[in-house]
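Example for reference:
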Amino acid sequence: RQAPALSPSQATMGNAQSLSRNAAKRKSLVKLTNIIAPVPSDLDVAQAAAVVPIKIVAAACGLDETDYEPYGHFKAKVSEKVVAKLKAERGEGYYVVVAGINPTPLGEGKSTTTIGLAQAMGAHLNKACVACIRQPSMGPTFGIKGGAAGGGYSQVIPMEEMNLHLTGDIHAIGVANNLLAAAIDTRVFHELTQKDDALFDRLCPKKKDGTRAFVVSMSKRLKKLGITATDPDVLTPAEKTAFARLNIDREKISWRRVVDMNDRFLRKITVGQSDTEKGFTRETGFDITVASEIMAVLAMTTSMADMEERLGNMVVAPDDAGNPVTADDLGITGALAALMRDAIKPTLMQTLEGTPVLVHAGPFANIASGNSSIIADQIGRSMVGTGGFVLTEAGFGADIGLEKFMNLKCRSSGMKPHAAVIVATVRALKLHGGGPPVSPGKPLAHSYTNEDVALVQAGVSNLVRHIQNTKKFGVPVVVAMNMFPTDTAAEHAVIRAAALSAGADDCVLCTHHAEGGKGAVALGEAVVAACEKNEAAAGFTLLYPSECTIKEKIEKIAKELYRAGDVSYSEEAEAKMKLFTAQGFGHLPICMAKTQYSFSHDANLKGAPEGFTIPIGDLRCSAGAGFLVALVGAFPTIPGLPTRPAYYEIGIDPVTEQVLGLS
């Protein structure tokens, strides 16, 4: 893989400094040539591309070598500390969120549209632009959905590095998560098998000179107990016991282990079955790593100090009296922060046309917060400067990813979006109009590959609902029709008419999958126009205030956005709401965990259903991330593999060492 030939002016730091002074206008580093029709596989396109060395991409963004750490030739970690410097020099760019309608299981090209739009902005409209997207989980990569680097001629490259490990952030999260899980079970075991004095002596062992000392990681626990003494030996017996015994209610431990794979058989397990654990077994389960609260903390944090505070606030269980037990109580916060030291830095990559991309965090939108990190967005806005554009992707449909972007991410960061792009396809709207089921690995039915205007007309209600919901937040909407080869002009006309009637600022046909940035120029122009009309983002509003009760927040989302007629709560959910309110977490916003395929809890309810009852099966407290998770029904938090997973296609060429079969 060769880097393209660059003129000396493109490669010099002097040019980068010139670009930084005029951040809103930049020339593309790469122009797509030799576009092939029909479009080859994503991997073939990516592996045929000329990749610019990351130091050239960084220099073109006005970054000094001290602002980033290269990971190989084509990736680099960017420090969050650059924000203050760049913001003072350049100001901040427009903030655009890219979401979609409820998709088919095949996906509707939202990531591809985000990247295609970024290429259009940067390579064709000469706008300073940064795309901010999530890191792919390897569960879907080897399962059904495939990777998340975009597709066709609108991709992040190197695509293989993007989809496989990247810079190890997800692995760091998994290790940190499982270290905490091990610490919880081990602490319970030691408290069950030791007396007070022995437990205290082991937590605060005597040094060779006979003295003891508290370590820094114990300070939060001591403060929580109101203990001000710095010498462990002066504590009263009651204080020693209170310090040493967390009294975790082992039947209510909420912290679960994680793995970054789709493994349905880990959904429910029993730990502690070895004889060495003396019969202290416990039923628990695994989540997929991207559903870990540590992933959510990474997505919501703003600095290293903020991340450490959030990690310490994570609640792992109640104690026997119902009080929250946190990572700080376990004295593990510093170790977790150390494991996350590099993960807090977004990874700088590039599109096929040289537009910079920040890849960071990867929470699923159906079971977690569903957006890339606040830090990446802040870095991106400071990199592009006033008049530039940051495109940040929200997962799945606008009912979950975009809702969480508004109510969780913007609430926490204070940033206000200037526009929203909603991606729609003829295929998905036909499904919402009553078309036959769409399943990975099976041929599409005749109605999807041939014109059926009536089916599209019946399904546009789904798009209309998403537009209406987005406008509830006071954000202008541009609809991107992601074109497929089997679409017809008559079908597109139906979508455009419905979108404009619903209040969209524009509805634009896009061919970026086949043509790269050139195919999204009209979309880029529409986004620029929408942002410039909403320069102050003055109309932005949240759906509910923080002081609402937990139930009021859940029902606000369910009834106003999903259009449910009612909400039901299991006994466990009712108990959790009382517990979390009593613990002081009732003010936190709500993160709904539900299917991405419908506005409702039932994936088979297509279109724009109304009047259904949303069942809340359980709640989880993500105090570190700063929200409560409401699980709609019995929603699994680790996916399973299909009969024929994507891994059948994946391999490696032993001679060239190129990865094969990724999608």
About this structure: The two ends are 19 Å apart (CA to CA). The mean pLDDT is 93. The longest strand covers residues 613-622.
